Amino acid sequence: MPVLQNTLYVTRDGAYLFKDGEAVAVKLDGKVLIRVPFINLESVVTFGWNIGFSPELAGACAERGVAISFHNAHGAFQAAVHAYPTGNVLLRRIQYRKADDPDASLAIAKRCVQAKIANQRTLVRRAAREQADATIAEGLTRTANLLDNRLRTVEAASDVASLRGHEGEAAAAYFDSFNALVTHPDKSLRLKGRSRRPPLDPINAVLSFLYTMLAHDCRAACASVGLDPQVGFYHADRPGRAGLALDLMEELRPVLADRATLSLFNRRQLDARSFKTFDNGAILLTDEARKTVLQVWQERKQEELRHPILEENIPIGLLPRVQAQLLARHLRGDHESYLPYLWR
Question: Do the domain assignments include residue 33?
C-alpha cells in the first residue's frame, strides 16, 4: 500500500518556487519561506496570478514523480507540469480500446455513476438519522429513496447519453436537499442551485474549489498507476479535459469534497466574511478563507476509513490512488468489472 504523502499548497502572489538541494523551496520578496524535501512530497499546487518556478524545479519534480498544478487565484485549473507517462504502455493501449468500445465504456461508466449516487444517498441518510427536526428528516428520507430509484434506472441505461440523463436527475434531487444538510444559522450561506463558472453562492464556491482539488488528486492517481488521465469512459474526450480523472472523482465527490464542505459551514469555520462578491455575481473565497479550506482538506485526507475491497484501513487521501489501481486491474482482466468505492 502506498504511503499518503504531503501536498505543498502555495497561495502567495509573487512567490517563486525553486530546487534547493533535495527540496522544493518557496521564496517571496527575497526570503525563503519554506523548504519541503522531495521524499515527503507527492504534489505541489499553486493558487495566484503571479507565481513562478524554475525550470530546474520542474525537471526535478518530473523526475521524482511530484506533480505540479497551477490554478488562478479563484482556484480554476490553468496548467500542470508532469513527466512522460509511466507504467506499462500495454495498459494504456487497453484503456484506449475500452474507451472506443461503447459496451465496455458504458459498463465502467455505470459503475462510476452508481457509486456516486450510492455515496450521495449515504450522506443524505446519515443526515436524516441525525436530524432532530422530523419534517426535515422526512424530506431527506424521501431524497434518499429517490436516489435509490435512480440507481435502478442507471443499471438499465442503454448508452452513456442516457446514463448522463439519469445521473443529472439524481444530482438535481441531491442538491435540492443540500440546504437541509447545512446547520449554520446564517441563511445567506445556502445553496441557490448548482452553479459552477462562476459560483453564485458561498456553498458553490467551496464545492467548486474542493472539486478542483479532488480533480488534481485523481489526475495524479491515474498517472501514478500508468493510466492516461485524459481518456475517460463517462466523460467524453475534450481538449484539455482529464476525462478519466473526472470519471474517477465522481464516486469520491460525496465522500471527500461534499462532506468537507458541510463540515466547514456546520462547524462555523466559514461565515459570510469568508467570501467576496464580484461585479459579475461570482462569489469566491477570500485568501484567508481559502487557507482554512485547504487546511481542512488536508486534515480530511488524513482521516482513516475501512476500504471494503482491500479490507484494511487506509487514509481517505489514498482513495483516488486505490481506485485507480482497481480500475487498472479491471482493464488488465484481473477483475471482471470495475469495483468502485461504496461508502458505508
Answer: yes
What single letter denotes the amino acid at residue 228? D
Backbone angles phi, psi at 313, to 5 degrees: -80, 135
Shared domain for 215 and 282, answered yes or no, is yes
DSSP for 315-326 reads EGGGHHHHHHHH
CB hemisphere CA count around 63 (13 angstroms): 10
Task: Give the pLDDT confidence score for residue 86 in this predicted structure.
Answer: 61
Q: Distance (Å, rounded) from C-alpha 297 to C-alpha 231?
A: 27
Say if residue 152 is in the same domain as residue 134. Answer: yes
342 lies in some domain: no
**CB neighbour list of residue 112: distance below 8 Å, 6 or more residues apart:** 233, 234, 247, 248, 250, 251, 338, 340
Residue 327 belongs to domain with CATH number: 1.20.120.920
Check residue 181 and give its pLDDT. Answer: 92
Q: Which residues of the chain have pLDDT under 70?
A: 1-5, 74-75, 83-87
Q: Which pairs from 192-200 meet CB under 8 Å and 24+ separation?
A: 197/76, 198/74, 198/278, 198/280, 198/281, 198/282, 198/283, 198/284, 199/282, 199/283, 199/284, 200/281, 200/282, 200/283
